[in-house]
Write a structure and sequence with these properties.
With 246 residues, the chain is an all-alpha fold. The chain has helices spanning 11-33, 36-42, 49-81, 86-101, 107-120, 125-136, 139-154, 158-207, 209-212, 219-241. Helix 3 (49-81) runs antiparallel to helix 8, helix 7 packs antiparallel against helix 8 and helix 8 (158-207) packs antiparallel against helix 10 (219-241). The protein is elongated and about 80 Å long.
């Protein structure tokens, strides 16, 4: 079963990411140094890009899984309110969710399909939800699985629990959307700020090479290396502070 806390890039994705990262590193070093040896030496920094791409894809995958899980709870609440048993409601989830998600290969639909098959084989639903929560490692899934287990053991209004859980997740997603809208412009500005120094250096190197000549000899190389290292640190810091979790 899929572990949603990890993601492995395919061979094609890794090759494309390395090629793109090396090309960008070479171009950035060329704009700053105008020296082929220095640019070639900086190109291997592109080998770090597959890790950045993997983390970004993993965050996107987990965000989509949480969004689809909220849709699943809403559909499940409707099915339980219509008088269906818990097991029958889960068996009907795939058919009811497919028009909403519109992606047959989505992670949640695959999980729901697997749960349905295992329920038909006689496995308890409580254990299936716990297994899913362990692999998903999402607070919403874990909370629902624990609440469902307590409700099954001690008795309780399962429909109300599902409805309340769906409402809490929906409110949290709304807050995240508002935060994302608020920082979207700042994220765009941060990307421009990351690229502007290289564009400025490239502009000066092309139109006024004599102005940049002192940086390409003697102690200028050391100063240029320090400035590029500090610029890279600033880019990393801006990326970190733009990653807000609710």
């Amino acid at each position: 079963m899929t572990d949603y806390t990890r993601l492995e890039l395919s061979r094609a994705q890794r090759v494309r990411a390395i090629a793109l990262g090396c090309a960008v590193s070479f171009a950035a070093a060329w704009l700053a140094s105008r020296h082929p040896v220095v640019s070639a030496a900086a190109a291997p920094a592109g080998w770090l890009y597959p890790r950045l791409l993997r983390d970004r894809l993993l965050r996107k995958r987990r965000s989509k899984l949480r969004l689809h899980f909220n849709s699943m709870l809403q559909v499940l609440s409707s099915l339980l309110s219509a008088g269906r048993s818990v097991e029958n409601a889960f068996l009907s989830l795939e058919r009811e969710l497919t028009p909403l998600i519109a992606d047959p290969a989505s992670d949640l639909l695959r999980e729901v399909r697997t749960m349905g098959n295992r329920i038909r084989n006689g496995e308890p639903l409580e254990g299936l939800l716990r297994d899913f929560s362990r692999r998903a490692a999402l607070e919403e899934v874990t909370g629902f699985a624990e609440a469902f287990a307590v409700c099954k053991r001690a008795g309780g209004d399962l429909v109300d629990i599902v409805r309340r859980t769906a409402g809490l997740i929906g409110e949290r997603l709304e807050v995240e959307l508002e935060v994302a809208v608020m920082i979207a412009q700042k994220r765009f500005e941060a990307r421009i700020m990351m690229g502007m120094p290289f564009a400025f250096i490239g502009f000066l190197g092309f139109f006024a090479p004599e102005y940049m000549a002192p940086l390409h000899q003697g102690a200028g190389w050391l100063l240029l290396a320090v400035c590029l290292a500090l610029l890279g640190l600033c880019c990393w810091w801006m990326t970190k502070i733009m990653r807000i979790e609710v």
